[in-house]
Specification:
279 residues; 2 domains; 9-stranded mixed β-sheet; 4-stranded antiparallel β-sheet; 6 helices; 22% helix
């Protein structure tokens, strides 16, 4: 059998293979030592793959909002402070402070859901939903803020009509007015009838009470005949300045026994006197 490769050809192929290997080694050495390491881009392209997240923005899957419960304010008798008391067998009037405002209440009137039932020498009693409450009179504390003595109502009613048809008359005598005593006696016993004909609010300078302002006078009422007008500020009665609710109540308590009455009022910027003879 003949040899496929002669020894001479095999020797030549081996020599060529050695030469190729030597050349590759020389080129590798040259590439490392001589050629720069920068400036030649040998980037390999890699197929990129987009990364993304699936986000469901559908409102149907949104959580239902939580219902916020409304907080109902709790009305407490402790929110009311008792500042003054006027108590007679047939009339009870108190001055209270609620939410930094003073208010005068008659028996049966309501404040903060509590109804005034009566009063003693140093306390007042209220009721609410069948329960009774007692408030003690504050001592040595002055009232603060702006208060009112019940705004007069203009709604006609049988009680209101009765107050305009009293037997007592008011006669104009020129420099003064003559008032029938029966009128004073009626209003001394029926304080609620006063508020149906006239509205009054307190006037203060800081914390000091300086008088009472007339906010409304019913046309044709006895108070209109007395010459009192809306906007008048009553400064004093019979020479006694009104600097507290107690002083005002004391004057009211003794109004039925006076023979002459003088009101000092401030009308606009003018101070003037209104004189009355009680007959």
């Amino acid at each position: 059998m003949k040899n496929l490769f002669s020894p001479q050809l095999l020797k030549w192929l081996l020599t060529l293979l050695v030469i190729v290997l030597i050349v590759k080694l020389i080129w590798f050495a040259v590439e490392i030592k001589i050629l720069p390491s920068v400036g030649i881009n040998q980037a390999e392209e890699v197929a990129g793959k987009s990364l993304y997240y699936r986000v469901n923005l559908s409102p149907n899957n949104a959580p239902a909002p939580k219902k916020i419960k409304k907080q109902v304010p709790v009305h407490s008798i402790k929110d009311i402070e008792l500042l003054a008391i006027y108590n007679a067998p047939d009339t009870t009037v108190v001055t209270v402070m609620y939410k930094h405002k003073t208010k005068v209440l008659g028996r049966g009137e309501k404040i903060n859901g509590f109804i005034l039932e009566g009063a003693g020498s140093n306390y007042a009693t209220f009721s609410k939903k069948g329960k009774n409450y007692k408030i003690d009179l504050l001592k040595g504390k002055k009232s603060s803020g702006s208060g009112s003595i019940r705004t007069a109502t203009r709604v006609s009613s049988p009680a209101l009509k009765a107050t305009t048809e009293l037997d007592g008359e008011i006669t104009d005598a020129g420099d003064h007015k003559i008032v029938d005593r029966s009128l004073l006696e009626h209003y001394a016993k029926n304080m609620d009838d006063i508020y149906k004909n006239i509205g009054i609010t307190e006037v203060k300078e800081g914390h000091a009470l300086k008088g009472f302002k007339i906010t409304f006078v019913k046309r044709g009422s006895p108070f209109a005949k007395l010459g009192i007008r809306r906007g008048d500020i009553i400064k004093s009665i019979n020479g006694q300045e009104i600097t507290s609710y107690n002083e005002a109540f004391n004057i009211y308590k003794n109004i039925g026994s006076v023979e002459n009455l003088t009101l000092v009022i401030l009308r606009g910027k003018e101070e003037m006197e209104l004189d009355y003879e009680i007959n």
